Amino acid sequence: MKTFVLNIDGRRYEVDAEGKNLLHVCLSLGLNLPYFCWHPALHSVGACRQCAVKLYKDDTDTRGRIVMSCMTPVTDGMRLSIEDPEARAFRSGITELLMVNHPHDCPICDEGGECHLQDMVVMTGHTYRRYRYTKRTHRNQDLGPFLNHEMNRCIQCYRCIRFYRDYAGGTDLEAQGAHDDVYFGRQTDGVLENEFSGNLVEVCPTGVFTDKTLRMHYTRKWDLQTAPSICAHCAVGCNTIPGERYGELRRVRTRYNGEVNGYFLCDRGRYGYEFVNSDTRLRQPFAAATGSAATASAGGGLVPATPEDALARATAALTAGGAIGIGSPRASLETNYALRTLVGADRFFLAVTDAHLELLNLMTSVVRGGSAPVASIRQVRQSDAVLVLGEDTNATAPILALNLRQASMNQPTAAAIKQKKLNAWDDAAVREAIRHERGPLFVATVEETKLEEVARESLRLSPADIASLGYAVANQVDPSSPAPAGLGAALQQAAARIATALKNAERPLVVSGAGLGDAEVVRAAANVARALKKAGKDARIHLVYPEANSVGSSLMAAGGLGAAARALSDGKGRALVVAEADLFRELSSAGAGALLSSAAHVICVDHTRTATAEAAEVVLPSVTFAESSGTFVSSEGRAQRFFSVMPPVEPARAAWRWLDQLAVSSGRKPSAWNGLDEVIDAMTAEIPALKGARDAAPRADYRLSGRGIPRKSLRETGRTAVTANLTLHEPQPPRDPDSPMVYTMEGTSIGAPASLNARFWAPGWNSDQSLTKFQAEVSGQLVGGDPGVRLFEPAADGGSWYSPAPAPGSRDGRLQLVPRWSVFGSEELSSLAPGIASRVAPASLTLSRAECQKHGLREGGRARIALDGGEPVELLVVVKDLPPGVASVTAGLKGMPALPLPAYAAVSAAAEPVEAVR
Hints:
Strand order of the largest sheet: 15-14-25-24-23-16-17
Strand content: 15-25%
Number of helices: 27
Shape: globular
């Protein structure tokens, strides 16, 4: 990149500024320059006129001219002034005009204290309001469970619709009106439908859109205790900042990580946090009233127990004849490893079906075997041609889908910039130039997905045909790749078109995953990625895993639930220890009940009451991500550390601590681990694949200027008042042996590694726009590098080709059922949050109109599906455009029986109406 020399207010700067605008460069240099309409992810439109600077032609020019820095490209030798009196007066005048209709409600505004408008008003020196006339007013709308709407605070920066409509693809939020009377809202009251609507809270520079869930237990932002964390609701690994007050989790905000989620979160990740405060939380130990787990499962019931009694009973069960352990893909590495240590490596199993674990292991072998490097989310966004095979990313990995949407514009944007001499950051001009273009994004799925809105071509195919298409594309790219047999002419032509587009790209990407539960689709995706890599392309692959720690937990497991059942029947253990998993989500009620009843004793360690906990003999209360520290491994293979935002309330404690106590008390370990670092040291020494997890964050003894990293803000108030109901003396802060962070405001985070950023704040920048002070460059990496460590890179040899499997046999008139995941409801923990629960749609069977008629069903009616050996399920019938012989079934909903999908099933009309499962 070319280095430019700039003179800003008499000071010389050398910057890599080719293709950038002045505002971007000034903020990257750490200079204070106010703005409103510009956003680092949305770029420039020049709407607010707030970022004015004085630009001079050369050294002899003493007068200069006012320009908008966000719309001015940087050139070598530029001389400008931010502090020029005329520029300052211009910016102050703009602020005054923007404030004409703004209400005097800062003390009661939910945005108060972290408001970008407040910061910019102070920065521009607008301290006195001269306007004394009637203000423009609006009626607010009810926008659903996530957002408050207060239109009177609007300054018409247009950020909201630029994000919601242009960036995220929403269609139900618009700018209505003209001139200074523009209304940003829906045509009528109603829930904002886009799954990224919560980002409006952070995108809006004022208090028009605020967090409705926070308002229900409101706390001023400077009084929130915060910590760096990782989203627990999918495998993308988005970085978050949860906030706590009075022992209650109050909200979750985006924590920038340039390689992962960037500036945004999906609504499931932002609002799913409310499960932490749920009434379903386990707060104390329980034990079966009499006897064993069989007594509890038969209705004997659980009664409260003391920690000592519960541990003694669990220890007795473990020493009576060995144990089998079932870990969880939603539990941390440390919890799973502690259970593995308790029961032994060969008796540690994962709470997924054997087929599911085989698929996870296949996916991991693909990304480690060298088909192509794994794409980070940033690299996904930078791709210039994409093939999606079988995965509805909007439902299974929403942030991935958001970035695929941006990737779809890269090739048309590059062509428009070259042909029309545009600047890449000139958002309005670029979007106008490419509004009729669609980039090389190809989507092959069973049913419609939101990515089809921006795809060049979308195909609705059966899982077998999706795999065949992938194999055919790979063969078109590299003829040495095995070709599928019996491919029809239409699919062959589609494969040729897709292969041509991928070969013509510089950075092609292949996306697939576990969403369909079909291993052939994953193998086909691996072949495409390998073919592109062999063709000399900078090709990458991204495979979507289902849960927050599916990657890490699967690396430890000796098998799935079927293997666990066989181990119990073979007498390898009499006790069963289940850590943070509900077996009834993976197995039918009969199957899960049989597995639990085959153990003489069942010990459950979990933070939430589940059907598995209800069937246990002993229940030990663990804590959530908000009260513990640990490590998740994302779909990218990135190990990332999360830290507790509040201390656990005894007797609840981190799951790995309970399991470690059991290991010591049952004689399986000589002594207990003293902290999280010792768990990680033991784990990485035993499991080489996880070695990099040690470097995911600094160790607990890390200190900055001799002090820990504060979780509390320097502006926090009322430290004594928080516990005034207990004592008038300020208590000793809780000690955290698992992290370098402290539960006080003492200490400093300035200069700390990015993995320890508990908040983004800088003098004069109280809103999240202060982020530019923490980045090496705007939209680049954080200073010191983005958090997380990639655990594995692909082997250099590139692996080997996968061969297509034979075509499926006769169906005997049965439909092939595939899982259909929902962004709201399919994930276990977030569905316990009231706001998320209100967005959950009824469980349904979706199929084509032809199949609906063929099986005697009617749209809006009820269908009865029967799988071999499974319990019948009755579902609402929905008609959509699906391929022949295939239907999709809502998966993962609370209260819905677990179905072993994909599978073939007989489908018929239900005998009588049944209330839809919710």
